[in-house]
Task: structure prediction
Amino acid sequence: MSAVEGIAKNEELRKRIGFTLFVLVIYRLGVHIPTPGVDGNAVMNFFQSQGGFFNVFNLFSGGALERFSVLALGIMPYISSSIIFQLLTSVIPQLEQLKKEGESGRKKINQYTRYGTIVLAIVQGYGISTFLKNPPGGEALVLSNSVGFLPFELMTIITLTAGTCFLMWLGEQITERGIGNGASLIIFAGIAANIPAGISQTYNLVADSTINPLMALVLAAFMIITIGLVIFLEVGQRRIPIQYSARGQGRQAMSAPQSHLPLKINFSGVIPPIFASSLLLFPATITQFVQAPWLQSIQDSLAPNGTLYNVLFVGLIVFFCFFYTQIVFNPSEVAENLKKSGGFVPGIRAGKATSDYIMRILDRINVGGAIYLSAICILPGLLIATLGVPFYFGGTSLLILVGVALDTTQQIQSHMLNQKYDAFSRGPKVKMKSRRVQF
Result:
């Protein structure tokens, strides 16, 4: 049965996919709703003339920043707040205790994350509104100092914060009622929406002989190879053999069942690049809106593909590779479950020795995964900057696109497999009834 037939026969999966697409369409429509009191054309011309982190921010917001729509901040404040509370959960005993309480504790931490999102959105909204009233070039980017009876700054803060909260709610709805991770799919949709414009710009530059056609082919081939490499490594696994104690006597005792424990080469997926980008965008945002010489020097150093930016980016990717793995995977718990079910790693004692063995392998995998993520995120961006491509579409973008697509595809396949299992469990009853009639 093909994937299309499987989706067509699974009513619940069709509803989930339809709901996800509907929500993403709403998100893309919201990108085109302007913020009150802003000169849209002037803001777009200004942001298009800027480089550096504006291109990265605009990419993650799906083009909402250059249009300065109500969704200009995107979902990055929510990502930043999630990072902060995941870090705090490891160091604050009260939050760690909430995490251990199960579903109720998780809901409480999610509530704190939402409050943190609002705070970060207010801070970034104030910075952007102040920046628009006093841009570096001196050209006015706002239509007036007030919108109705509210000052421009207050109206902008309210609008952008509400837009971020709306996106946060849309992401949670996708996660609960749709298919895939909501926040990741929103970022995916924003990046994918910029692909046609990037292709069109590159084609025009090739037609105008600004870029050598051979260089454009090299760039396209490099992206295709990068995508293939990402797919190959994202589905790659390190399988730890698991053997279960045989039960029975004689020949039955000789045939002990065997299995394996799969560990992905890139265990943390696209989380490290997204978290690292979010953390680097926040201080870069602050430096843009505070006109201090020492902050401006930091801003220049934090430009994408700059030395300091790349060093910090790689460092954060490595950190989150190990940190996120520690959060979502507990070797001690896995070893204990294996021991209870009679499973063991051949040549390794059950219990703590198995836990240490799994952890040692996981650390080695994380080293390779961190190197792979760093290379994918840094090298394409440097190549694009060297070729002078006028839009930012680096390795981080490719990794997010491919990683989110693979994760969503796997969830779709899981729903289809559940449908097959349900049909299989119902099948024998029908067959046995038929046999009674025949015999």
